[in-house]
Amino acid sequence: MASESKERSFGDVLRSMRERRNLSLREVSCITGVDHAYLHCLEVGKKSCPRSMVLEAILRVLHATAADRAALGKAYGRAAAIKIGLPY
Q: What average pLDDT does this structure show over 21-42?
């Protein structure tokens, strides 16, 4: 039950969105123009705070819903989420 209350990280949410669309990192990279290594770093938590333009490109490709955006905002934290235009 403790695992149910565990909050997901920004990268976890992003990865699950990508996997739900059955896209590889390289496919998202080709479509968005964002380097696949950078996408990987976002997913594993080695990088954070992508610029809003980069995040929007990724979210468009992943067909992010309002619920997806809210989950990313929650995982990201209030100040950072507001900075890049995610709901919190």
A: 97
CATH of domain 7-83: 1.10.260.40
Average pLDDT, the chain: 85
How far does the chain reach from its first CA to its final CA, in angstroms?
25
**Neighbouring residues of 62: CB distance < 8 A, sequence distance ≥ 6:** 14, 17, 18, 20, 21, 23, 28, 68
Is the per-residue pLDDT at 21 higher than 60?
yes
pLDDT for res 19: 97
Domain boundaries, the chain: 7-83
